[in-house]
Amino acid sequence: MSALPLPPDAPEAQVRRLSLEMSRRLDGLLQGEHVRLGLGPGSEPAEPRLHTPGDDARRIDWAVTARTGETHVRTTTPDRELETTLLVDLTASMALGTRRSEKRALALAVAGALVHLTSAHGDRVGAVLLTGDGARRVPPRAGRNAALALRHLMLTTPRTESGRGADLAEALTEPARPPRRRGLVVLLSDLAEPGPSSGPPRWVRPLQLLAQRSDVVVCQVQDPLETELPAVGTLHVVDVETGRQMEVRTTRTVRERYREAAAARTEERRAAVLAAGAGHVLLRTDRDWLPELARHLSARRRALRGPAPGSLPRRPAAVPPGVPS
Asked: Would the pTM of this model clear 0.85, i.e. be above it?
């Protein structure tokens, strides 16, 4: 069964059914794994304690161990309430859809599933909606009613007209206003920038700053037309962010150069996201995106848990006294 992104302007009852269906599928793909989108058992550091049999060796605090001569392990204060912010790009470029759905619809579908998964564990979830009029911030709240209201707001946000772009770089500063403790930020966007591109994207630096204080996952949404041109003769093209129009002759040479440039651009954006310290997931409108999202969430949970107990940790060359070998 393929993931069916939410159709534009779908009735609220249909939206609710599709959101629940996608959430159930995601739960099934994760094979019953406890899915909590926050930082895991704890994010705030606490006082180190003495090592006891059965402690994971990777949690050894080498500095304290060397200073005291006794093996200590790092501890954290459990998070009683985790916070997730969804930054959803609803600008004009997200209206592109040449196959099964628009990029906008896919982003809304993913956002709806994440709202459901987050609120199901009693955690707070909020959003920053990026439109042609700027960024609209919805403060994180907990509870079923808050989750339903957020999903409804996202799905009823008016479409952005062509030529009315918005600044993704500026929007990336919104989840940190006002400053909050470390949480999770999920960006759903095609990472497009209006106008010709030269040099690194303007959103790289804000993303890097955000990743220093939050756990950030970037879901890059892509349509097949952005990676390969069809052989249709002369193609009339409109830049929906700026309104600029042009005609392109889709010769074989042009199509090959377009394909190569598109692949390079996708890789550059992926590399920029990873270099900024964020996770990256590529979601395409012509593919079933749920397995890809489930794989990323599973890998993320494994990374947060760390290696299995008994595995060899990375150690400094000189092993302090008292450390078990």
From this structure: no
What is the CB neighbour count within 10 angstroms for residue 37?
22
Statement: residue 181 has pLDDT above 70: no
Considering only 7-16, 55-64, 123-132, 274-283, which range has the smallest mean pLDDT? 7-16
SS (H, E, C) 38-105: CCCCEEEEEEEEECCCCCCHHHECHHHHHHHCCCEEEEEEECCCCEEEEEEECCHHHHCCCCCCCHHH
Tokens linked to 264: 């390079």
Query: Number of folded domains in the chain?
Result: 2
Q: Where does 131-223 have alpha helices with state H? A: 144-155, 168-171, 204-213
Instruction: Give the model's confidence band at 214: pLDDT under 50 very low, under 70 low, under 90 confident, else very high.
Output: confident
Structural domain includes residue 3 = no
Question: Is the domain of 148 the same as that of 222?
Answer: yes
Rounded to whole angstroms, the Cα distance separating 40 from 38 reads 6
Same domain, 129 and 260: yes
Q: Please check whether residues 161 and 246 belong to one and the same domain.
A: yes
Could you list the residue range(s) of the whole structural domain that residue 253 is in?
A: 80-287
Query: Residues 6 or more apart from 149 whose CB is under 8 A from it?
Result: none
Contact indicator for 154, 111 with CB cutoff of 8 Å: yes
Token pair recorded at residue 6: 């939410």
Pairing label, strands 134-141, 124-131? antiparallel
Smallest CA-to-CA distance from 6 within 101, 94, 76 is with: 101
Closest CA to 286 of 112, 17, 102: 102
- Cβ count near 295 (within 10 Å): 13
